[in-house]
Amino acid sequence: MPRLILLRHGQSQWNLENRFTGWVDVDLTAEGEAQARRGGEQIAAAGFHPDVMFTSVLTRAKRTGALALDSAGLKDVPVVEDWRLNERHYGGLTGLDKAETAALHGDDQVKIWRRSYDVPPPPLAPGGEFDFAHDPRYAGQHIPDTESLKTTLDRVLPYWNDAIAPRLKAGDDVLIAAHGNSLRAIVKHLFNVPDDQIVGVEIPTGNPLEIDLDANLTPVAARYLDADRAQPLPPLPEA
Ligand SMILES: O=C(O)[C@@H](CO)OP(=O)(O)O
């Protein structure tokens, strides 16, 4: 039975500062590093030995994965990076303070931008500090100027199908170190969460989410390895 662990990066500097982050490459705080190491210890305690780790091209996810593998004594696990596991692109909200934005536009509007399934934030204006069009990590790619969770899923899912699912189907155990919304997209897909219920899924930072899958990659069991920091999970889908 293939095992999957989803690991959201530890606390980042902009998680701490409460700023819309998206594709901005902010690093972990000291607390975020500690969360990543604790996550690794929990992965080791669960007897999980991934055959491969997938991660995004963003430092906070890559470092979380590396710190977790290191503290689990699993430094030799091969790592595959891809931008399609990046955080959802926050468009024109990128870099703004979340509380100030709510004071300006209202809590309801900000909740729609943050947690609705298919309403994207306003697009990013081209040419500014947070325009990644000329970033070599995305050379030759058509990159978005904003993303909803739906359009995030639209780019995560082909990567899941082409790169990740084949490894699980071959019997490999897989660790994915990524981001709140790219992981919510994977959870939505695996658990078949209805569009209007994904708003209730919040993945805590640095808390490994173990999902046991059947041969069709349908979840048959799921739990956060740090039960004290767990959040509600969607019901298991019918097999
Ligand atoms: O700022 C972001 O990129 C994300 C994740 O931290 O925030 P949110 O909680 O709004 O999805």
UniProtKB/TrEMBL annotation:
Please give the SMART domains that the UniProt record associates with this protein.
PGAM
> Which residues constitute the catalytic centre?
9, 87
Give one GO biological process term.
gluconeogenesis
Q: Where does substrate bind?
A: 8-15, 21-22, 60, 87-90, 98, 114-115, 180-181
The entry lists its GO molecular-function terms as: phosphoglycerate mutase activity
Key words of the record = Gluconeogenesis, Glycolysis, Isomerase
Source domain of life: Bacteria
Query: EC no.?
Result: 5.4.2.11
Q: In which pathway does it act?
A: Carbohydrate degradation; glycolysis; pyruvate from D-glyceraldehyde 3-phosphate: step 3/5
Q: Which Gene3D superfamilies match?
A: Phosphoglycerate mutase-like
| Known function | Catalyzes the interconversion of 2-phosphoglycerate and 3-phosphoglycerate.
The cross-references to PANTHER family, in alphabetical order and at most eight, read:
PHOSPHOGLYCERATE MUTASE
Assigned protein family = Belongs to the phosphoglycerate mutase family. BPG-dependent PGAM subfamily.
Name of the molecule in the record? 2,3-bisphosphoglycerate-dependent phosphoglycerate mutase
The encoding gene: gpmA
